[in-house]
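Suppose you are handed a protein chain with no further information: no name, no annotation, nothing but its sequence. What can you learn? This example shows the usual starting point.
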Amino acid sequence: MSGPLTRSGALVGALLLAVVGLVAAPAAAAEGPTATTRYGQVRGEAGETAHSYLGLPYAAPPVGPLRWRPPARPARWAGVRDATAPGNPCMQRPGSTPWGDLAGPGTPSEDCLYLNVYTPARRSVLKRPVMVWIHGGGFTVGSGTFYDGGKLAAKGDVVVVNFNYRLGAFGYLAHPDLAAESAQGVSGNYGLLDQQAALRWVRENIAAFGGDPDNVTVFGESAGGGSVCQNLVSPRAAGLFDRAVAQSGCGFPLPTRESQERTGTAWARSLGCESVTCLRATAAEDLLAASATPTARWVPNVDGEVLPSQVTDALESGRFHRVPVLQGTTADEGRLTVATTYDLAGRQLTAADYPVAVRAAYGTRADEILARYPLSDHGTPAEALGAVLTDSQFACLQSRTAGLMAAHTRSYQYEFADRHAMDYLNLPIGFPIGAPHGSEIRYVFGGVTGTPAQNALSDRMVGYWTNFARTGVPYAADAPRWPLFPKVLTLAPEAITSSTAFPERHQCDLWNRPAS
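A reasonable first move is to predict its three-dimensional structure. Written in structure tokens, the prediction is:
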């Protein structure tokens, strides 16, 4: 269901069942692997190389009076719950990417706090490392189910978990009324609290699936990578994971709670609401439609409690969970933005457009940036703008966070550089898209069917990631040793190499310069 109070009978029934603490489970098929969680028994689907358990509730549906509240524990159920179909994705607008709609299967709904577990089909007497994936999508789109964890589980001999968390206005609205409801006086970080609830569920239940609750790695990409680092600095995530992997995202600057509450108040008034009571009575579809406003930024906020400070400030002072961290970027992150803004939207970036685009994005810094990134150094204007975006938004920020962590814990950095990683999509664009944002994900999940060299690179990346989850040190069969930061491992089909030249190649002296 996607409306909050549109089916009052169903809501009353759900509230009564929650009071009793026991709900009827969806009927399970007679065959398939079973596991017993704290909340009841589940029956999944057996695969040749991996088993899956889909649509497991890790929190109560955040509907009606639970909208914009911290996640509550799910109700227990009687019988054996069918776990062969995923739960619905969280509320989001339809979106198109080169890989399809990131919402994945199902209909977006507020009743969306579900996770999936993937285990190797082969039995083991030993507990397996657990890898918990946080999906990306700019905190406004995406789902866990979009990323099938079966191949990674089977190839890496790990237990893989992915999950949904509240998105957009449903996950990140801050408002003074919500702060007044909170014992800590905070609001707006409900999506982040969902992530921590999912990690808590893993600690409490993953042993039933053969996973080791004392060896959990959290990994994610883009907004998911940013979420990994936000959990690294959140006191409420203490003890929930043992290693961390942040792909193409970590220290994104975040707004303060106060600024988000001002934005939230203005947004509520645009809906004719002066109170959260009014907002909770508004249909979810209406909230979703209104959330597309360009004046609202649906992201976590620095509230002093869930997020005590900016990620980079916490890392610099050592106020984070000092687990081993692996992080990195793709060689051409920004080319995806250029492709979706221009070529895939039916227009091309011209030489005349290039300085205009840089000035629009960077204002008074534009002249210095254009001098550093002249068109003559790049094959096309699109590649030039892509380099600016890659370095300013991803490469140099990730280099900085890797360096800040290295002062306190084992820190590893990579650059994914398969310049043909996207060829299989045959995108209608007029410039080489290279290794853009998101192009490494299928290599990590073991889903590559490319050239022999690409397949070998994927196998080695699966080895690096899963052995890092297993031991805290990234290594792989028939692959070079991965040195600690400041060396950066370049992952390419042609060769895997390491060097300290990453900051110079990405002109990080320009982008990591202290604010004047």
